[in-house]
Automatic annotation (TrEMBL):
Residue ranges occupied by any UBC core domain in the UniProt entry: 2-113
Annotated Pfam families: UQ_con
Organism: Eutrema salsugineum (Saltwater cress)
SUPFAM superfamilies (UniProt xref): UBC-like
Name of the molecule in the record: UBC core domain-containing protein
Length: 113
C-alpha cells in the first residue's frame, strides 16, 4: 500500500531529526495511528506545557490529510474545545487577553508554569 510506504519514510525522517520540542510515532504496531508529545518554547503562553496530540492517517494518505486532534486541552484560535484543528486562521483582536487565557489553560491542563 502506497500510504504505508510514505508514512514509514516520514517516520524514519522524524526519528532521524530527533527534535527536542516533540516526539511522535505509531501507537503500538498501528502505522496509521500516531501519538505526539509537544513541548512549547519559552516566551509563549504555552511555555512549559506538555501537549498530547492524536494523529490518524487515512488509507489514501498523502492524497488526503491526516486527522489531527489535541488530547490535552488548550486555548488556541485554531483549536476547538474538542481538540480538533482548523486550517482557517482566526485572527486574534486582543493579543494580551489571548495570551493571558492561553497561559492559564496551559498551567491548568498541560502542566505549564
Amino acid at each position: 500500500m502506497y500510504s504505508a510506504k510514505v508514512i514509514s519514510l516520514q517516520l524514519k525522517e522524524v526519528e532521524r531529526k530527533n527534535s527536542p520540542c516533540f516526539s511522535t510515532g505509531p501507537v503500538g504496531e498501528d502505522l496509521y495511528h500516531w501519538e505526539s508529545i509537544i513541548t512549547e518554547p519559552k516566551g509563549s503562553p504555552y511555555e512549559n506545557g506538555v501537549f498530547k496530540v492524536d494523529i490518524h492517517f487515512p488509507l489514501d494518505y498523502p492524497f488526503a490529510p491526516p486527522r489531527v486532534m489535541f488530547k490535552t486541552k488548550m486555548y488556541h484560535p485554531n483549536v476547538n474545545t474538542y481538540g480538533n484543528i482548523f486550517l482557517k486562521i482566526i485572527y486574534v483582536e486582543d493579543r494580551a487577553a489571548f495570551e493571558t487565557i492561553a497561559l492559564a489553560w496551559t498551567v491548568e491542563h498541560a502542566g505549564g508554569a
